[in-house]
Amino acid sequence: MNAASAKPSPAMLAADMAAIPILQFSESGQFAWANTQAEEWLGLSQRHLRKGRFAAHSPLCSHLADIVEQACSARRTVVALGLALAPGGPFDLHARWSDEQSALTLSVLPHREPGAKASQAPALGFGRMLAHELKNPLASVRGAAQLIRRESNIEAAGELAHLIIQDVDRITRLADHWSRVGDVRLGVRSPINLNRLAVRAMDGLVRADGTASAVLREDFDPSLPEVDGDHDLLLQVVLNLLQNAFDAVREVKDPKIRVETRFDTGPRSRTGANPTPLVLVVRDNGPGIPDTLGPDIFTPFVTSKPAGEGLGLAFAARIAALHEGQLDYESEPGRTAFHLRLPVAREMPS
């Protein structure tokens, strides 16, 4: 039975009633299905769209095909914001890859201008989707690492496998955080030394890309008090900040990233109720954050990357707030700094 004559599934029937254009593509990026809204938006029927290359049907189809090809090639979800594709735009494209079905679903949504208030529902739904998509490949990676550790007699291989398993378990716990009704909640809290946390995050970045070691520098306050927090979540915040900085300096002639810790008695929390003197700073000499983004850089799905998810900084700001702290930044061309500000642990260990 071909796609044209197949009985529509309940999911397709629901998608056909959606108020936004929705299209489906095969793992090779070939057009498979579109709902009524998509047909009307493109001005083309499904029968026509199945003929020949999807990208060749119109300039609009060509733009969509670029995003579809990127998502299918990388086997991951891609989000592109604020694209001027057609009258009535700009639009946001959410190209969601499914490992289970080896297929891609493309949703077209009206673009939300930075600064406009919006429900958090799309971000929360993305959190559940992210958790779901992370867990399957992570389970496979963890199994491979366990096999390496079990079968190898080389000590170095065993240590590497142990690191892989540690990181996979940490990411799985983060996925669980996102999957709880889409929101993030603190797990087990413990005293944390920000210097050691920063070192572990820097090591993680270098393991992911060895070229990062040449651009990283540190300037730590050795007498810094501890913070009381969720280690996994705070580690992910610092990793996100480091990865953003590393992405920002890739095209810089003399790239530099500096990680600092210090005790600063000035700033307080957003509400002014709690002092946040523990500061971890990630500085880079990249091109800076575009003025058009401003404080909305911490809003889910807002990103300066052409096809990024726009969740890293939103996640980081949320985690800082859960720790009664805050995340802020200062930026100009050639100098950007993100400040993670946290309170001192209420009960210092004896």
Rounded to the nearest angstrom, the distance between the terminal CA atoms is: 71 Å
Order of helices and strands: HEEHHHEEEHHEHEEHEEHEE
* CATH architectural name of the largest domain: 2-Layer Sandwich
User: Would you tell me the overall average pLDDT?
Assistant: 76
Helix content: 25-40%
Topology-level CATH name of the largest domain: Heat Shock Protein 90
Query: Measured on Cα atoms, how large is the radius of gyration?
Result: 23 Å
Q: How many domains make up the 3D coordinates?
A: 3
Can you identify the CATH superfamily of the largest domain?
Histidine kinase-like ATPase, C-terminal domain
Structural class estimated from helices and strands? alpha+beta
How many helical stretches?
A: 9
List the helices and strands and how they pair.
Elements: H1 10-16, E1 22-26, E2 31-34, H2 36-42, H3 46-49, H4 59-74, E3 78-83, E4 91-98, E5 103-110, H5 121-151, H6 155-179, E6 189-192, H7 194-208, E7 216-219, E8 227-230, H8 231-248, E9 257-263, E10 278-284, H9 312-322, E11 326-332, E12 335-342
Parallel strand pairs: 7-9
Antiparallel strand pairs: 1-2, 1-5, 3-4, 4-5, 6-8, 9-10, 10-12, 11-12
Helix pairs in contact: 5-6, 7-8, 8-9
